[in-house]
């Protein structure tokens, strides 16, 4: 069969329910179109492209969950964030802004919020890699299916698939006129409109056009402003052209544009620390110690202005019988501007915390694949990737910050300012300490180029036994430059040198320094009259208020700002078909993720390049390359510029079965990541590092039961037992609720549930005259997991969704639906409150959503 005909057939077959196979997460044969049902009865197959070749889901020797378009519609899945309610192994979070989404599979994954960190879970839409989270959110109007591939997939998908793959496949233009429109209205004044139309404009040319509009009021109340946060306000358009000049050649062109303009994301106060009293004294307000509160306080509405657009071209060409060539070329662009009142109080501590990012991505894939009738088949390809990122961000003090710092110091901050200026030679022209508008300014320029060669060979040794071997050789290069600065002069003062300038060490008469007896400077034995020389420096009490110290920009004489990585990933697999109903596989595979840069305020020199300290201290800091090069700055601290590569290994045993009315998919695995890139949010930046070794042992099982043609049940269960086998450079909250370096070896990674269960059911009731009443429900429960290292808080997540639909023979369908019906209470993430030492903030859970929709297909 020629490639073009095969792909058209694949398009029809892909609408078939997974229930007809008994594999994947959730799908229902009763949802399929009549034509697709006829195909199912003939072939009883569904075609997927998990291995970049058309295969039946039964024959794919990979742990893969497939969610059909019908299931997505029945569950009212709006975007990839909602998809996690259908796939137990998948966890999706949208946190700091609308531009950031994080995907985790089997407990592995990162990349949200920090643009320099490439995700461990790769997202592909119609074969095009979406490298950054802002480019992965889209209310696609015409989804055909979503495939979730679990475990390392670097052999076929490259350097950013060390944890898994999410592949979204949309419907191609059709050579028969058709389309549809859907309108949905729900609580919080939610309005969703989707429409698509397709048809031929010539014998060999078909087109499609689709659009979507999604608007909803926010569910978090900004009390002092009288406004709402966590809303939805996004729209998009997408056009396709399909050209089939012959049975041998097919060309598919896609262009899209979508826009997000939302107020996100509201934050709750989990723990009100010692700074809360100072905020209250300023007239500020917090909904104190209420972790699930949907009431927050801010000085201004958050801004999330995001544009995502691009185009791609795919060419499929049958070269000869059994050989086909595929080329996919793409350009993607993301433009995002965000601004947030990061202290989340009505006191104006942080005037703004904004980031302006421009991301341009170019990809080219070329591969040749065989479809021979014999024992041997292969796939060979190459991939090129180029990405440029420019980020300009700033964090500025608000009008209350100076008074806030003064309150925390018991008046010492202002009272000691003349003395500190005198001792450090700070001229009067420099703005008063903590003045409104002072802050940090960051600029990063990031360039990444990579290429890879990959291939796979399938050898059917005997009837039913197939051996597979695959490889991927990748070269990755990154170059990053920073141009960061601070105007907070106070944070650049060397307090040890200040004491030396004042004639300290020496004996200090009581009352020498204003505020010496305040809370920040308690009078201890070391700070009294007659104290031994060198034992007292009351200025050191100001260190907690030096929020924004100087940056050391790079590249410089010591730090090149460049990384060069290469890797050979491979897969070895044996797949055996015991009968027409049962097959099994055994896999050993490796994965790779390249170096990731820390493009945040916490991008600091490595300890191997710099030993922190003041030259005035006794003894002086030891020599280090940065100090020897004359690059040392006051209060410069160490950290990481980047995290080294991740190397993944998985051992997996799988069994798949398909029987009349019952099917299952079982996988047992152990997955290990060496160099796992840990990314911990510190409130205004990120602590980036490598865990020497993290492993997860687990089990996944998906099953479907169809007692009758009109009744279908699904159940999925995932068990994960993760641990840090070795992580000496970790970070965790200490007893004062502040992040500190911690050896996490032997601990359980946060954010991972040991048990996850998803169940669902659909019942079709014939009403007469070709009409149907369709009842659907699905429920997911994730067992309690630790939210943050060092904190006692845990979260158990559940989601109950349901819908009742009346589908008429004329193509009109009316539905009542509800999502998150049990309204569980949990905080998916907890972090240190910005500029509020000892306090904790967290993201509250979403409320219940419900509504009605009308859909018409023609």
UniProtKB/TrEMBL annotation:
Its main location: membrane. Residues 57-165 form the TonB-dependent receptor plug domain. GO terms for cellular component: cell outer membrane. It is a multi-pass membrane protein. Residues 1-29 form the signal peptide. Residues 284-821 form the TonB-dependent receptor-like beta-barrel domain. This is TonB-dependent receptor. It comes from Sphingorhabdus lacus. The lineage of its organism: Bacteria, Pseudomonadati, Pseudomonadota, Alphaproteobacteria, Sphingomonadales.
